[in-house]
Records
---
Amino acid sequence: MARYAAKRVVGMIPTLLILLFLAVVMIDFIPGDVVDIMMEEGATPERRALLEQALGLDRSVPVRYMEYVQGLLVGDFGDSLWNSQPILPELIRRVPVTIEIAFLATIIGTAIGVLLGVVSAMKQDTFIDYLLRSVAIAGISLPNFAIATFVVIMPAIWWGMSPTLRYVGPLEDPYTHFKIILVPAVVLSTNLTASVMRLSRTTMLEVLRQDYIRTARAKGLSTMKVTVRHALKNAMIPVITLTGLQVAFLIGGSVIVESVFVIPGLGRYLITAVDQRDYPAVQAVVVLLGIFVMAVNLLVDLSYAWFDPRIRLS
Amino acid sequence: MALDALSPVTAAEITTLTVVRQRIRQTAKLARKKPLGALGAGVLILLVLAAVFADIVTPYSPLEHSPERLVGPSWEHLAGTDQFGRDTLSRVVHGARTSLYVGVVATVLSMVPAVLLGISSAFFGSWYDYVIQRVVDTIQALPGLILLITILVILGPGLWNVIIALSFSRAIVGSRVIRGATMAIKSEVYVEAARASGATNLRIILRHLLPNIVPTIIVVYSLGFGAVILAEASLSFLGYGVPPPTPSWGGMMAADGRAYMFAAPWMLWAPTIALGVVIFSVNMFGDAIRDLLDPRLRGSR
């Protein structure tokens, strides 16, 4: 197992290096003269030179690459163009927020999805099954931002309630904090819940057809015991894989959710950076997110190998 | 033939009619087997018609300001008007045109690089494959929306930049799938046989590989089409998509829709319903196509 893990980690390194490379040369792909675009009027030669230096355009690509990698190793993500402050502290402040919402969304999505999927499988072809399946399909089809927008607006129209859109940290006021992040997390989890529900229904149906289930039932075990003890565990393996892979989508979705619910997370930071053409900040977010997704994929692979010995012995 | 003497209809025309009738019957059979997919296909056809004939179908221009602002649904304006007096229904129908245009162009544009990359990567193998797949890995490590936003930061706003960003993203994803399918086919016996009888690589690709990849391509792109439409809507919602005043469903649901939500909820409802229905239909249609074309993928139903 350790050997498999080591192999996978080593395999990640080229991808990581390419990610950093792409982040560094990102700026070179901007059509037109970046400095001109950003400077507009009142551009003295000194200020132009300063900007060029900040963007790294006065150095060659290999040099910039080495600098960036060296910087990363000590945790220096560079300085934001907007306020000339180091980017790292801002990232440190925002990452936990996004992770918290994504994590909560994952838990909600998986729990509810599995529950609904199992119920749907056990009551196959009944009204409940069709109802749940329709809800699932709707959940996949409606875009995140549509659900988010309506969730923010509908209570205001129906009940005159507007959700608190001022963010409160977990340490300041845990109760309010939880109330604030719960709704965005649920909205974010919609897609995941629907996918998990459909998948667990399918796998559960397949597992329920197996012989060992028939044996268990023939032995006289109650339906509950059969479901939980025997069927569920085996049905969950593909679900775990799916959840792991969906993390990337969750992060993309968090951009929208953070935008609508005004949550100071990584997603909003990216949007702000993009609007301000703060290229170093965009680079930093891209690198961070890329690393995060790669790490999650690695974990998924490792857990998969842990569950299925065939993989790690191949 | 005696038939010629009976009526002015020639034998050729009768054959054509028979063929047409057969095709209709086949289609109807397919539709019965997959009712949801057929429904999806029907909606999509409506979508295409709406998009193509938008100018004729809509009573007003989507850009035309009028003094009737924030008017609710009425006989003159079936879906009400927005803050500039533009007819919401017309904007929604023209939004179909935007979504379809972007979706189709981005998808089609992405096919060539995806096929080239996927097939060459699988076919030539060794370090070429390794390098390309590592780059693909890297790009796929970025969540979809984030990748698109990053590309748009670099390229700047504009309709064509959005299309380029979307096709780039689709091409990367598609190349992976095509590569997988190519590798599966590459090891089939008939390819070995063709090589043994002296066929060149090119011939193998054209005669054996491509025809067998077509089902995979169809499945991937029909499912991917929904993703493209969704992505365009999300980008427009965030403000990075199609620039105003071109109507786009995502854009209509963004600031304007929300700002005027209390005064004019129809501004938000109309594009939302349109978007939801279209994505739902594309998903259903894609699911049906996948089930029909690749029975191996069919889970227990």
---
Amino acid sequence: MSPLAKLLEAALFASSRPLTVGELSTLEPHAGEGAVHAGLAEIRAAYADQDHGIELVEIAQGWQFLTRREYAEAIDRAQFALRPRRLSPAALETLAIVAYRQPVGRGEVDEIRGVDSGAVIDKLIERGLVEVVTRGEGLGRPLLYGTTPQFLEILGLKDLDELPRLDELSVALRPPAPTEPE
Amino acid sequence: MSAPPSPVVQEQPGFVVELEQFSGPLDLLLHLITEDELDITDLPIAKIADQFLAVIDELGLNQAADYLEMAARLLRIKAQLLLPRRLGDDEWEDPRAGLVRRLLEYQQIRELVDWLALAAARRAEQFGRGFRPEPPEAPPAPLVIELNDLLAAAERVIALPEPVLHRVVPRPLDVEGATARIEALLAERARFGWLEVVGERPSLVDVLSAFIALLELAKRGALRLSQDGPFTPIVIQRESPREAA
């Protein structure tokens, strides 16, 4: 592997979270993002070719070494690593709405779910999956929420575009209505 | 369009639902609709409203403001459908339209929920490196046990020899005596050592009695205990009385 690829490999090994190309570029300021992309491809190919227990994965707008799927059960059984806690149906409903309607206010989430969602949103903020992104127009300038990189990470998504398109679902619906003045 | 006839009128004996299993009134409605395989766009409102009311009635209304609101909405739609309207009234809007739209929207969310849950489960099959703070309520590790192990253990218990009986000799701790001794020492001196409390060759009972007495007195604020390091002699110091009690 090239010297840059080895440097990237070391940084990715040391990190406990996905690193973006931008972050990786700071390792070698002269290299540039193009070289970093090439280096990442090199590492990925090297790990794929040489048949390793880990692989380089593109996730949450960054890159991270992850163990291969076939070893999940053994690692889990031996309790060397903790699996994240599963999300409740209420949390997933709220996440789905926030992901598709962001930036979205609590009122809209309540309306779609048909129940008060304040506590669920607070929990999701606590888990770092949802954050306040801006304030809306209208009375009281309500807080508007959006998803975080952590949200992409726990779902193994590269970015939000990987979410299914609404017209691909079996229940096709109107696009999000324009926000009505309150 | 007139109020639709209920396609299948079915009695549902022993209808059991737990409120906790639904994430809200829309979820419950969807459940009722799919259960009876009703057409969501042509809802038999009367039937659905009755079932909905029956369910929330059965479950008690203690925590169910959201459910009550939905019940009221259903009843209003039911009433609106019963109102006579003139033939050829183009202005007429199906009172169910708003509800149907919400239900479809919610159904779509449920589909996304399934998708997200699957994605999260797939992601959980891969571990990243490094320290992650543990979730606050990590559940205890599941107990893995095989039937053979259990049987073997049971056999061991059954095969145990008769328990050896042991005669218990009453030899109670003399905490009161130790307390009196320590209080006497405290009256005399502001500071003294452990050995002065128990003497040169204390018995086990003496040590235990004195120790409990010391802890009790320390708790009451009569004295302070300190130690230079682990296993070094305990130093007892008189504490100036702070409280009258």
---
Amino acid sequence: MIFSSIVIFTIMVVVGIIFALIRLAIGPTLADRVVALDLITTQIVGIIAVYSIAISNSTYLIDAITITILSFLGTVTFAYYLGIGGKP
Amino acid sequence: MIKEILTSLFLLLGGFFMLLAGFGILRFPDVYTRMHAATKSGTLGVTGALIALSLYFWDTEITVRAMLPILFTLITAPVAAHCISRSAFKSGVELSENSVINEFEQNQEISTDEQIK
């Protein structure tokens, strides 16, 4: 039962990542692209969690914490770039 | 047995919210509504996946390590969304034409009027 849930979860998250990648490609402004990147990193943390369940090994949880913090830093950096008058 | 059922339930819930986040970021009309979809649904999705992970392992150390990304996401996602939406509004990104209210601009006008008086 857990195996089929893992497969369904992976399919749903990959479809979500594909939607976010489409928005990253066609986004009219820079803010759209930054929001899409933020969503993609959140979904990658979910992929890491389900991969840890699939291999029954919790080594990669540290990477989930690191990716969360780095995504916040990247978003705030782009917000600062937009705030000081960068090209949108 | 009941642990497996709960793990599968939280996994499916998290995956459904992540799918909703992707669908919302593709279909909503402007930056601010897209940000609303991405932040809230993404936070719920990652919370569901990590709760499923801590239920699957059923271990104190791994549970504490799985609660840390949830905590960081719950703290940093609203702050990041606030920063990027404020910067987007200041850099001149238009609202959708279906929007009915723009409280930020009205507050700015009121405060500048008070400064003039």
---
Amino acid sequence: MGRGDEASEPLIDIYKCPNVKVEEFSVFANTCASRPTRAPGHVQGTFALEGLLEELAAELGMDPLELRKKNYTTRNEGDSKIPYSTKGLDKCYELGAAGIDWQRRNKKPGAGAGRKRRGLGMATQIWWGAGVPGTLADLKLNPDGSVEVICGTQDIGTGTLTLIAVVAAETLGLDPQDITVKIGNSDYPWAPSSGGSQTAPSVGPAVRDAALKAAQRIKEVAAKKLNIAAADVIIADKKLYDKNKPENALSFKDAAKELRRESVFHGERKEPQEGFAYNTFGAHFAEVEVDMETGRIEVKKVVAVHEIGRVLNKLTAESQVIGGVTQGLSAALFEQRITDESTGTLVNHNLHDYKIATAKDIPEIVPIFVDSFDPRLNNLGNKGLGEPPRIPASAAIANAVYNAIGVHVREIPMTPDKVLRALKRKEERS
Amino acid sequence: MKNFELAEPRTLDQLIAYLAKEKRRVSLMAGGTDLLGEIKEGTVEPDVVVDLRTIPDLAYIKKEKDAVRIGALTTVADLAENPVIAQDYPVLKQAVEVIGSPQLRNMGTVGGNLCQRPRCWYYRDVDVVCRKKGGSKCFAYKGRNKYHAIIGGGMCYIVYPSDLAPALIALDTMVAISSPRGQKTIPLADFYALPSVNVHKENVLEPDEVLREVRIPPATKDDRSAYNKFIERGSWDFAVVSAAVKGTVSGKIFKDIRIVLGGIAPVPWRLQKAEEAIKGKKLSEEAVRVAAREALQDAKPLEENGYKKDLVEVVLARTVMSLV
């Protein structure tokens, strides 16, 4: 059993269109168990919508990017109709088009010549990722100057440990390696499950809240020692010092010693400001080369631009994007469940027959962030990034293939047999 | 997984003597890259696994006057790195370089590659009792068959997955076989047999016979050869279609040519009709494509694998034209 999981959501939300009607239904089949993965529903819905727009643009003789810009909206077009608090999608379009050199695309799909043809394509992404208010984190400041952050979240490989250390360290003027992070235990303060791109915008602000409280407390202690007002204390570079006289300083360690015992600060992720919609946005731009005789597609480059509010850690954020694009590419070109219809069994249930991308299939991937800040959302102004990079990659690659060969394959994975079939369809039509 | 005994003969004579008397189900293991997967999944259930690696002197590459002799236990990686192979047999060098992955090439052997079992997903599924495993039908025939045979099927639509076999057959390679009845040498082309001969196996080896050595005839200076393997992704895959071509060329014309295809039939598939059409003629890509098309006129693709016919044309045309 598997469910579509709101595959129509992007169709309702992304573009300004007064008359949208979607119907969604699940088909229950007597086959192997299945569940959607990373951005359930949106990957599929985006593939359909963005492919449709690409074909529409060609019919209209329009630049597909211009078509999207023409239908740009700054408010949620779905149920709420309220404005987005921040929407950096226009900036994503601009940076992505520059990154892939968009004007190189075939003005008419399939206009190139020769055995191997290049094409450019793009696709838009919308997703949630505002995080969960009520998330808790504790910060423990010990008299030896060591700092522990404790939170009932988990790191599923997405860099939660890093982001917690980075947020606490930056708030307290320390280095990330000075912070001991304790997670992965349900006895710890409550955090939501690791899904829905919600960990960073839930846990990050809770940690920030706890760390701000700790900073305030240790500033007060230092102020007394330095004989100045707490408001005049700067906390940075593992020191606390007088903003008017920086040499009047106390090390973080010595200040912590003054506390004489461990102190625990409770942090909480607060509610965002009402009346606004909080979403993440992105746009992927892909370049492909298609062998017209074998139907084999090679992805040459993907420029992946995302607006997720403030980026907490560049390394892990870029890593998320590279992973998402890799998954999207793998789905676009290789991955499929092949079911024998007479027995209902999956015939390719191993990693030899269920093909995933190999290192040799991965092109240059350029992650770019519209590094903005959404103060209405939370105290860090950050949104989630777990799922967004997975959403538009397959669609952008499929649209690039369309731009290269002049016919949309309309189905993933775009294996050579399907590409050859699509080319034959095109030949028969003309 | 069923338990098995492990036998470790120390000499080839010991092995042959053992095979003469052992009546239980025996699997010979060289690199184990294929066999161990089969045992773990339960596709085969041997009573005894004979580890051939305990026999010394079965891994070698020797250039002699009448042939280059390659021991069955030579690893694919050693073959890939051998200067004689690179110099004399480009088709072989190109074939070994695209086998599996570096890890598989390090473990896999020449003999093992030539004796590997088919990758058909129905054959490999322990819950499916297909004709090859003693059942009464080929599940691929009306099932999911995009990777299956377009020619030579009938009883069973597996494709033979080896990259080495088409390359070596194109080079007119002989194989030496040892058994309690002595030694014999046969062309590798005759080593493989269609399902109509015996649906349960892919070659003519009897249970007490061992493939010991391959012998490639010496290269001549007019020889040209190439291997071209089409796979769906960048690496680590079996051929959807592959073409091994070897011939002698003079002035852009093939004086003689051998074409062997992989990935399309239950055995490496010699395309003699196309050879005849190409030999002695001035060539163009289109002419080779037509030759391939006509040579495959008897092909009977199944519902999902008709695209392989198109791929044969392209892959063969590119391979042949790269040599003139």
